[in-house]
Specification:
It contains 14 helices and eleven strands. By secondary structure, the chain is an alpha/beta fold. Strands 1-2-4-5-8-3-9 form a seven-stranded mixed beta sheet. The radius of gyration is 24 Å and the shape is globular.
Length: 370
């Protein structure tokens, strides 16, 4: 019998299998003759609690090499009846780090407690969570590169010795009490691996680095999500949606929901290539998946700074964004797509960016006369 979902200090707790059930198959069929969305499910599908996230490794699409290795480590830990080694997840936002942490907990058959580094403000916050964990539980910390030093140092001992040092009293009468905690699995996720302290990184037994998803994997994700949402989508529409999703499942699912809206309002029986093409035009998303702000970043580099190089802070001010947002959200895909280059002197627009924007300029030169 599944355990009821319970709250824990400083984070949210999930029991194995307590995630919302995945409904529908991987195909895009299921709309039937009642239009793109079944009337009785129209409002339920829009509910925030209706999850598109996979719950098992077999449902987790893409990242094949990482999944194969992880399945071996999980199987070995279960056979030995031990907790899994601490797991370090690295990658840009939206690629499935939190989802994979939930999948690991489900595969291990254990509970999972979630929190984020900024939420761990004082040592007692961490102590409150760790002392309530059960044997082999999964403890997930998002944005782990933002941990405070005092929290990080407590975590060192907890990860290695499964004990906590707690100071009792003040002044000359203060003494240290060592508290034993259950053997747990820490899963740390970060978009900035370089900002995580080396002593902390070295304590993770397993490291998984996420990469942007390929076209085939993105199409499979779109079709699976369409099946869960009970919408019908044709092959060309799924392909166009996949190529416009920046290699990121989170973006693909967001765009799929918006295409569903367009198709529903226009009384289309399914999401077609024409619906997706028009929907992307209205959302100002181009054939490479670039949004309006992506194109503005490239245009600023090309037109104001003659193609670069330009420093990150200068570029961020020019486009009205924070440096962290520029580096964490926009730049990874622009670099992966070959549109932007990072050099020691700053950011430089590639020749592909000039061609894509049709700016009439040439790299390192002035506007073309022809």
């Amino acid at each position: 019998m599944e355990k009821a979902e319970t709250g824990r200090a400083g984070g949210n707790s999930f029991s194995p299998g307590s995630g919302l059930p995945v409904q529908g198959g991987a195909s895009g069929e299921g709309a039937g003759g009642s239009g793109i969305v079944r009337p009785e499910r129209r409002f339920q599908d829009d509910d925030r609690d209706f999850s598109l996230r996979p719950r098992k490794l077999g449902e987790f699409l893409g990242q094949d090499s990482m999944k194969k290795n992880l399945s071996v480590f999980i199987a070995a830990a279960r056979e030995r009846n031990e907790s899994l080694d601490h797991l370090f997840l690295i990658g840009p936002p939206g690629l499935g780090k939190t989802t994979l942490a939930q999948v690991v907990a489900n595969e291990l058959g254990t509970d999972m407690t979630m929190t984020s580094a900024p939420a761990l403000d004082k040592p007692k916050d961490l102590v409150g969570i760790l002392t309530k964990l059960k044997e082999k539980d999964v403890f997930f910390i998002d944005e782990i590169h933002r941990l405070k030093p005092v929290i990080e140092e407590m975590l060192y001992i907890a990860m290695e010795d499964y004990e906590l040092d707690w100071v009792i009293g003040q002044g000359p009468g203060a003494r240290t009490l060592r508290i034993a905690i259950p053997r747990f699995t820490l899963v740390g996720a970060t978009t900035k691996a370089g900002n995580v302290a080396s002593p902390l990184v070295s304590r993770f037994g397993i490291s998984c680095r996420f990469s942007f998803y390929g076209q085939a994997d993105m199409e499979a994700i779109v079709r699976r999500s369409a099946g869960i949402l009970r919408v019908s989508i044709d092959g060309e529409a799924a392909s166009l949606l996949a190529v416009s999703s920046r290699g990121t499942p989170r973006v693909a699912n967001r765009l799929l929901r918006r295409m569903r809206d367009f198709a529903q309002v226009e009384k289309a029986p399914s999401i077609t290539h024409a619906v997706v093409k028009e929907g992307l035009r209205r959302l100002e998303i181009d054939s490479l998946g670039l949004e309006k702000h992506d194109r503005e970043i490239l245009a600023v580099i090309i037109n104001r700074f003659n193609g670069g190089p330009v420093g990150a802070e200068t570029l961020a001010i020019s486009v009205g964004e924070a440096v962290d947002t520029l580096e964490d959200y926009y730049e990874p895909y622009l670099i992966q797509s070959g549109l932007l280059q990072r050099t020691p002197r700053g950011r430089v627009a590639s020749s592909l960016a000039y061609k894509h924007l049709q700016s009439g300029r040439t790299p390192g030169g002035e506007a073309s006369l022809f």
